[in-house]
Amino acid sequence: MMPARFWKNEMKRCRKCLVPDQVPGISLSADGICNLCRDETALARETERAELARRAYEADFELALAGCRGQGEYDCLVPLSGGKDSVYLLHRLSVELKLKVLAFTVDINIPPLAWDNIRRALGKLNIDHLSYAPAHDFYRKTFRYLLHNQEERGAVYTLSYVYAPLFEGDAIRLAIQKGIPLVLAGYSPGQPEPERMLYEFSRQLICDTDWTPPELARCGEFTAEELGRFYNPKTYPRGTEFPRYLAPFHAWRYNQEEIMRKVVDLGLVASSKHANPIHSNYPINWLLMYSDLHTFGYNPYAPEFSSLIRHGKANLNYWRVMGPVVDFLIRKRLGPGKEVTRSLEWLALTAEELRISRPRGAYDPVIASA
C-alpha cells in the first residue's frame, strides 16, 4: 500500500524556488520560503562561486576548442538524445563555432518525439550522424535488476548511475576509434551528479577507471560479456589517446526557457512541445519518477529544477504550474504518465517490486571528480 501523501500530493513547496519541503535539509518558514532562499548572503556567495567557476570553465573550453580544430576528420563528438539541450548544442558548435561535428545516438529508450527532433535538427544543420542500436535484452535485464534492487538514493539515482555511463562509455569508445579529441555533452548545470562531473569527467575517470558497477559485478546475474559492455580504459593498449569529455553548458551562460524558445525559432524542432523536456524525456524516466515519488514523497528532479530557478536559469512561473501537473500525471499514469505502466510491463515488474535494497553507492564505480 502506497502512503497517503503519494496520492494526495500534500507536500509544500517554496514560493521562490519550488523546492519541496520533503527534500532533506529543507525547511519552510511560515510565509513559505525555504531556508536556501532565506539565506540571501549564502545564496549570493553560491551564485558568485558558480559564476567564477563558469568563467574558468569557459576559458578552458575556448582553449579546448582551439586545440581540437583540424586534428582529424571531426573536431568533436556530440551525444544526441533529441532533447532541447543536445539539439541546441549541435547548432552552437556547428553553426556559430564552425566546428566539424559528428553526432552520435545510442538507440535505447528514445521516444518518437525525440527521434523527430533528431531527424529535423540533422537535416537543418547537415551534420554527420551515427546511430547505434545495442541489443535491448541486456538493457531490459539491467533495468529490471536495478529497479528491483535500488540503492538508498532511489530509482533515478540508481538507474542513472548505470544507464548514463553505458552511453557515455559508448561515446568515448567511438571517439577513441575515430581519433576525435573532444566529446561534448548537452548536460545542463547540475547534470550529471556533481560528484561525477563538474564541467568535465576527470582524466583519472577517463584514462584509469573501470566503469563496471561493483554491485552488478558481485551479484552473479551478469555474464562477463554483459559486464564488458561497460567502458574500461584498462582494456586499451598503452599510448591510447583518450578524449576529453566536457559539458559546454557548464561553461556557457545557461537559461532553460531561452533554449526552449531558440530551438523552435531556429527550426531545429517542430514546436514548443518538441522543445519541452517533459515530452522528449526517456520513457523509462516516468517509471523512475513514479518509484521515487512513492519512496520519498517528491519528484527526484525537483531539487535540480529548484536550483536552476534560484539561480535564474529556469522559469519559476512555468514550473509552478508544470511541476504539480507532471506529478499528477505520474501518480495517475495519465498522458505521458502511461509510460509508467508500459515500462512495468516491459520489465515484467509490479509497482510493489520497485524497492530499495542496496546501500548508498552500491552501483558507483570508483568516482574520480575533476
Structure description:
Helix content is 50%, strand content 7%. With 370 residues, it is an alpha/beta fold. It has a single domain, classed as Rossmann fold (3-Layer(aba) Sandwich). The strands form two sheets. The protein has a five-stranded parallel beta sheet, sandwiched between helices. A two-stranded parallel ribbon has the order 4-7. Helix 5 links the parallel strand 2 and strand 3. Helix 4 crosses helix 12, helix 6 packs antiparallel against helix 7 and helix 15 packs across helix 18. The chain is globular and about 60 Å long. The N terminus is likely disordered.
Q: What is the 3D shape? A: globular
**Given the helix and strand composition, which structural class is it?**
alpha/beta
Mean model confidence by pLDDT: 92
Shape-level CATH architecture: 3-Layer(aba) Sandwich
Could you give the topology of this structure?
Blueprint lengths: L3 H5 L26 H4 L1 H29 L7 E4 L4 H13 L4 E6 L5 H14 L2 E5 L3 H13 L1 E2 L3 H24 L3 E3 L18 H5 L6 H5 L5 H4 L16 E3 L1 H4 L4 H10 L6 H4 L1 H4 L3 H13 L5 H9 L5 H17 L6 H9 L8 E3 L12
Parallel strand pairs: 1-2, 1-5, 2-3, 4-7, 5-6
Helix pairs in contact: 4-5, 4-12, 6-7, 15-18
Question: What would the keywords be for this entry?
Answer:
single chain; 370 residues; Rossmann fold; two-stranded parallel ribbon; 18 helices; disordered N terminus
Write a compact overview of the structure shown.
This protein has 370 residues and is α/β, with parallel strands linked by helices. Helix content is 50%, strand content 7%.
